[in-house]
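Lecture 7 notes: from sequence to structure.
We start with the chain below.
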Amino acid sequence: MPELKTLLLFILTAIAEIVGCYLPYLWLRQDKTIWLLLPAAVSLALFAWLLTLHPAAAGRVYAAYGGVYIVAALLWLWGVDGIRPSSWDLLGAAVALSGMAIIMFAPRTGNI
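Predicted structure tokens for the same chain:
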């Protein structure tokens, strides 16, 4: 069950980061209101806080999180930007998720 908790935390973290970066993008590139920066700041603060909830060492969490972020970004590309990921995108995402699983769930002795 800790694996499911870890994955859920990573997914929530990725969503918070992407939203926190997408809202300023809308302001800067699509001439949306500057008020989008307020929820963006809240979202990025949530992103940072969520990363602290993992019991593993910070460096390991940051390294593994990248794999989940890649998948979330490709889903964002598809769902929000309307661009379907290519086969190569999907292969890269599978490799990244495999790396995340190895980093986070490999048996360890002594340290977390």
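Points to note: The chain has four helices and no strands. The chain has one domain: 2-105.
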